[in-house]
C-alpha cells in the first residue's frame, strides 16, 4: 500500500542509476520485528 510513497522518497536519495534493492510483503516477521534489513555488496 505504501510502495508509491517509498519509491518517491527513494528517488530523492538515490538518483538514477539507483542501487539494487528488493521489496516484499509479508503478514508478519519473526519475533514481532518491524523491519528486516538486507545487504547487497559488490567486492
TrEMBL record:
<comment type="similarity">
    <text>Belongs to the RutC family.</text>
</comment>
<dbReference type="GO" id="GO:0005829">
    <property type="term" value="C:cytosol"/>
</dbReference>
<dbReference type="InterPro" id="IPR019897">
    <property type="entry name" value="RidA_CS"/>
</dbReference>
<dbReference type="InterPro" id="IPR035959">
    <property type="entry name" value="RutC-like_sf"/>
</dbReference>
<dbReference type="InterPro" id="IPR006175">
    <property type="entry name" value="YjgF/YER057c/UK114"/>
</dbReference>
<dbReference type="Pfam" id="PF01042">
    <property type="entry name" value="Ribonuc_L-PSP"/>
</dbReference>
<dbReference type="GO" id="GO:0005739">
    <property type="term" value="C:mitochondrion"/>
</dbReference>
<protein>
    <submittedName>
        <fullName>Uncharacterized protein</fullName>
    </submittedName>
</protein>
<dbReference type="GO" id="GO:0019239">
    <property type="term" value="F:deaminase activity"/>
</dbReference>
Amino acid at each position: 500500500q505504501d510502495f508509491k510513497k517509498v519509491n518517491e522518497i527513494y528517488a530523492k536519495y538515490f538518483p538514477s542509476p539507483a542501487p539494487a534493492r528488493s521489496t516484499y510483503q509479508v503478514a508478519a516477521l519473526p519475533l514481532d520485528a518491524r523491519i528486516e534489513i538486507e545487504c547487497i555488496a559488490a567486492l
